[in-house]
Backbone:
């Protein structure tokens, strides 16, 4: 019985969201607002139970003095609301931005920049003509796309031709991304239809 | 009004309706289109096949119900293959809404079909806030990051955690990701620093961003969207929930391609008439 009620509620709300495809209406707006409100409430409660309580509150109650440092930094974040003490919020913001910038910088250099440059140093004489063509296209694609984003020289003559080739590679890339996006949205539609006609109405 | 003008002024709701029925019909009447696994899915499958019984695998599940149709079949198929290989599964999540989805897959597949025991064969560590920081800290001590599992039980005494406390004790990371934090961050923070092999399943939207990681060898396998999940299911068990949806997906794509071609044809004809600038 609880499953039937839950599925019926979910089914009706799904239809309410789908009704936007016909035109904007009050039923759609109700479902939208209900979702936003529920999600916000759920995440506040969830963050309190899984982040604030175990990582800070329980430790403070247990007498962990070190935990007063993050508590003080967290309180300082709220000084943005004080007209005269806004500058105090820069300290915790600085700590967060500094830590994340350090992590991201190293991760990007190690994981993306160096590894991807290495991965594009390819041979065009591998013994397999298919691989040779693939590698050649990859090298040409990377170089011409880089030329397109090089703005210190006017895109005329040879640079212009390479830049134009770069645009074609970018277009192919955007086309592939669009195709994958269509596939993702279609998958979501299939998931909802399977729920409506399978889990809810038991017609599948 | 000629046929070109009629099509130009076609109500978009008619297009929605056509797509709706194109997707719905194959769910009722499957077409049985064949699915051929690509190199990415084959590599994903091979990376898990290379594991030995008793090896420990970290299952990084980073998504939420919004990506359920694409990613849950991947997670279920991965758990199925891991159970067949008799490896230990340690699951964790950096997305708050994911742990219940992991529990559901474990209950259905690990417990329901393979009679695996919680705490002995697998464990769900649950959600941990901290994103890249958590990824790095797991490399120092899993018990330090997750002293208890998603239900609050201490993980120190669980047989599944025996001899496992950092990436050095993990043979493979299986990541199922819907965005940030996800596959990109696992590659940047963990693959490059700890040299541990990673296989990833992701939403179709993010797949093009991750193909270079597969090409460079930073990912040992990659599943992109429902199609990737279906290919992987074919390799694991011959069929599955994603494979069954592929007929609807394919027919939907054909209809969209048809509309794109039709739109371009009319644009081309109008250009010849000189009525399009």
Residues:
């Amino acid at each position: 019985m609880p499953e039937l009620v839950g599925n019926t509620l979910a089914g009706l709300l799904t239809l309410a969201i789908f009704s936007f495809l016909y035109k904007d209406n009050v039923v759609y707006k109700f479902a939208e607002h209900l979702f936003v409100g529920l999600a916000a409430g759920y995440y506040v409660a969830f963050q309190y139970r899984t982040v604030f309580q175990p990582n800070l509150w329980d430790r403070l109650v247990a007498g962990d003095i070190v935990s007063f440092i993050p508590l003080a930094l967290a309180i300082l974040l709220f000084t943005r609301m004080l007209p005269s003490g806004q500058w105090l919020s820069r300290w915790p913001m600085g700590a967060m931005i500094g830590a994340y910038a350090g992590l991201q910088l190293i991760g990007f250099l190690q994981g993306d920049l160096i590894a991807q440059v290495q991965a594009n140093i390819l041979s065009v004489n591998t013994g397999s003509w298919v691989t040779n063509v693939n590698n050649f296209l990859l090298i040409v694609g990377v170089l011409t796309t880089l030329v397109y984003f090089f703005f210190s020289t006017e895109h005329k003559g040879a640079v212009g031709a390479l830049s134009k080739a770069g645009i074609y590679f970018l277009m192919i890339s955007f086309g592939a991304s669009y195709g994958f996006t269509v596939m993702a949205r279609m998958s979501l539609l299939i998931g909802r239809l399977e729920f409506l006609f399978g889990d809810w109405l038991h017609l599948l | 009004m000629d046929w070109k003008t009629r099509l130009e002024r076609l109500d978009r709701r008619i297009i929605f309706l056509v797509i709706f029925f194109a997707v719905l019909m194959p769910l009722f009447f499957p077409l049985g289109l064949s699915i051929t696994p690509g190199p990415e899915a084959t590599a994903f499958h091979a990376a898990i096949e290379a594991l030995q019984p008793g090896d420990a695998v970290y299952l990084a599940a980073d998504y939420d119900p919004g990506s359920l149709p694409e990613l849950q079949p991947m997670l279920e198929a991965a758990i199925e293959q891991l159970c067949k290989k008799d490896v230990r599964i340690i699951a964790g999540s950096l997305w708050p809404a994911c742990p219940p989805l992991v529990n559901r897959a474990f209950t259905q597949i690990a417990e329901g079909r393979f009679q695996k025991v919680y705490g002995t064969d697998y464990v769900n560590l649950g959600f941990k806030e901290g994103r890249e920081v958590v990824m790095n800290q797991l490399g120092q001590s899993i018990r330090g990051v997750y002293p208890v599992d998603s239900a609050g039980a201490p993980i120190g005494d669980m047989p599944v955690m025996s001899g496992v406390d950092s990436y050095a004790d993990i043979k493979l990371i299986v990541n199922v990701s819907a965005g940030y934090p996800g596959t990109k961050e696992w590659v940047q923070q963990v693959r490059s620093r700890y040299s541990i092999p990673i296989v990833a399943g992701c939403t179709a939207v993010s797949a093009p961003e991750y193909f270079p990681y597969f090409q460079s060898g930073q990912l040992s396998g990659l599943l992109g969207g429902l199609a990737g999940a279906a290919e992987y299911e074919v390799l694991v068990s011959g069929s599955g929930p994603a494979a069954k949806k592929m007929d609807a997906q394919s027919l939907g794509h054909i209809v969209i391609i048809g509309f794109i071609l039709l739109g371009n044809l009319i644009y081309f004809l109008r250009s010849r008439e000189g009525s399009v600038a």
Summary: Residues 122-204 of chain A form one domain. The CA atoms of residues 147 and 163 of chain A lie 5 Å apart. The helical segments of chain A are 2-18, 26-61, 68-77, 90-119, 129-148, 157-200.
